[in-house]
# Entry
Amino acid sequence: MTDTSAKIQFKQRVRNWAAKLDVQVAWLGVRPMQNKWASCSTEGHLNFNAELMDMDEKVRDYVIVHELLHFFVPNHGKLWKSLMRVHLGEYEAAEAALKKIALTNAQQQRR
# Structure
């Protein structure tokens, strides 16, 4: 799969989740990011780290849903966690996998 087609498919997955969660996305980008997996703004702008293209679908969905839920809940409190569970079930495994990837990346950058 080419880089372009992977981005197109990823963006479509984001749009599908946005529709399911009733989130209006004004702008959607996939680009290299140094310190984040994704970011969102109150204006409906979403950016996702291009490294997500190489990750497992469950990890990608975790990041997508995580960001989209911030349009409703700006923190990671009980409500946010409950909504994550409603939409992804046991999301903690994907969260742990993402943290492990981040740790590995950080270790590689220090070398």
The chain has a mean pLDDT of 93. The radius of gyration is 14 Å. The chain has one domain: 3-110. The beta strands are 27-31, 38-40, 45-49.
